[in-house]
Amino acid sequence: MTQSNHRxxxxxxxxxxxxxxxxxxxxxxxxxxxxxxxxxxxRDSWRTLRILSEFVEGxxxxxxxxxxxxxxxxxxxxxxxxxxxMAQRLGAALAxxxxxxxxxxxxxxxxxxxxxxxxxxxxxxxLGIELPFEQGMNEWVDxxxxxxxxxxxxxxxxxxxxxxxxxxxxMGTMDELFEALTLVQTxxxxxxxxxxxxxxxxxGLLSWMRDTMLADGKINVADLDLLLCTDxxxxxxxxxxxxxxxxxxxxxxxxxxxxxxx
Length: 262
Description:
Elements lengths: L8 E4 L2 E4 L8 H6 L7 H23 L5 E5 L9 H15 L3 E4 L5 H11 L4 E6 L13 E5 L2 H10 L3 E4 L4 H15 L8 E4 L1 H16 L6 H4 L2 E4 L2 H24 L6
Parallel strand pairs: 3-4, 3-7, 4-5, 5-6, 7-8, 8-9
Antiparallel strand pairs: 1-2
Helix pairs in contact: 3-4, 3-9
């Protein structure tokens, strides 16, 4: 649920700012923009404690989540758009399959996925972020955390999810998509399905990856196999379930052979 235009609101970690208390900068901007900051050595040293506290808060809050899937997509999508309708059906299907749904907690596709999950009886999670413009946590989030720092928030999206589902979106969605692919490609995470939903939206990108990146030797055929692109909600959920079952079978085999599963 977004805030009305006449009532600006900013969430800065556990702090809520409204009206004249809302400042123009963000914590991420203060950390990353070194221009005009002669005191960075002192301030950044203390800032590490705030960063640590965000990790502790996130780990402590999310550690007891059931199996979960992170869903990404545009905050700008209209509620009646095809991607929002798809996201709502996806959220419901994931909840029925036993998964919690994690989104960025904002409007658009995120709100639709949270709504579908909540209405189907699942646990709906929102990981918000301090932005220079208003956003706020949507009303369908059951458990919400507001972060100051993008990199802390992004860790939570991966650490507590069994899969990513990426619906039509903009720069932030692309960032999450390619970060997930990089983590899987470099085996930082294993058995981590990445599903792209909305064939028409993603077809141009996939063609470019195949015809340019692959043709020029920048990626391998196996890298493209990391992705499933579909318009079918059931296919997406089945793909995630299959990966979970395969991972569970691998872990059982390791235990039975006397090895140690991570």
